[in-house]
Specification:
- The structure holds two protein chains of two kinds.
- Chain A is an all-beta fold.
- Chain A has strands at 6-11, 20-27, 50-57, 60-67, 76-82, 87-95, 100-107.
- By secondary structure, chain B is an alpha+beta fold.
- Chain B is built from two helices and nine strands, in the order ααβββββββββ.
- In chain B, the strands form two sheets. In chain B, strands 1, 3, 5, 6, 8 and 9 form a six-stranded mixed β-sheet that branches. Chain B has a three-stranded antiparallel β-sheet with strand order 2-4-7, with no helix packed on it.
- The chains are: A mainly beta, B alpha+beta.
- Chains A and B meet through β4 and β5 of A and β6 and β7 of B.
Chain lengths: 111, 157
Amino acid sequence: MAEMKTLIKIKPKTYAVGEIVKIDFMAMHPMESGMRKDKDTGAIIPAHYINEVNFLFNDKLLTKMITWESLSVNPVLTISLKVSGAGTLKVLAKDNKGQSVESTVAITPKG
Amino acid sequence: MERRSFLKGFGTAAACAALLPRMASAADEAKKVVGPNEMSIETAIAAITGGKPLTPSSKVSLSAPEIAENGAVVPVKVTVESPMTEKSYVKAIHVFATKNNNVRCANVYLTPANGEASFGTRIKLGGTQDVLAIAEMSDGTFLSGKQNVKVTIGGCG
């Protein structure tokens, strides 16, 4: 199985301490609902979706998400973060087949 | 002649009547694929609120397109007007697609460190329906906001 590819974007690109930034977490994932049929064989494609995403800032839980198959293919999850200082934002994502991925991004406020 | 045609007609009708329910149920079964996490909106709301009242509030703003051409990718954004301090904050935002097989889309548990109660994503909608957002406040109340999205092409096919 291909490894889950992820990307984290911080908007805006430059920010200061105390500002609220948006965090976009993107993952390459099929998000199969378990209700779709294979067009050739007619067999139901088993469900395969991201079911848990945890956002940690400096190893402290920022946001925990329980997600379901209703999210679109290659989901994008956006949350806010009030920048309290420099640090590392870690995102842990898991899917219902036990596959997990960890990605990090540095939070570097200006000024 | 009359009798014959009557009997003939009756016979066919009876055969049809006998066959129809079976045929219909077989067709329904073939058509209706139940997802692994099927859940109705009532059950899902009860699981979140635990029977507490749900108050529609203008503080919960849910923005989604009124008409979605493609149900497979419907952008949804939820923001809750609330302070985000240790004393008073939004504990969680729950997003539901009220007519999907599994109505649950995402349960987002926030902390005061978020600074602002907002959540955005893209969801699949099986057809025209309401998208519902429930904000779970730190004082134990539940606020809700919803929007109807018209879907031209379903996203669960």
